[in-house]
Amino acid sequence: MPLFFIPPLMLLWSNVHAGFVFGLVVILLYTLSEALKYFVKKIMPGFPVTSSLSEKSILMLLLTGLLAILFSYINPVFNGQLIATVESHTTAKWLYYGVKEYMSPVEETRDPFGVWFANITFWIIFGFVSIVTALNIVRKKSIDITTFALIFFASVAALTSVRYVPFFMALVIPLTKDYRFLRDKTFLRHFTESPVILIFFSIFFIITIWFGLKFSTNMFTIAKHRFYPEKVANFLLNNHIDTNIYNSSNRGSYLLWRLYPHYKVFQDTRYISLEATTESIAIRDGLEYSTQPSVSAFGNAMSALVPEELGKIKISIEDGDSNKKNRKIEKPLWKALLDKYNIDLIVHEATADFTGDIYILTLRLVNDDDWVLIYLDGIMQIFIRNDKKYSDIIDKYKKPKELVYDEIMIETAYLVKKKITRSAAYSSLAFALIMKGKEEDAKKMIEAALALNKKDLVAHFCNAYLALKEKDRKMADQNFKKASYVKKQLAE
Question: Which of 33, 136, 164, 426 has a CB 3.0–4.6 Å from the CB of 448, allowing a cystine?
Answer without folding.
Answer: 426
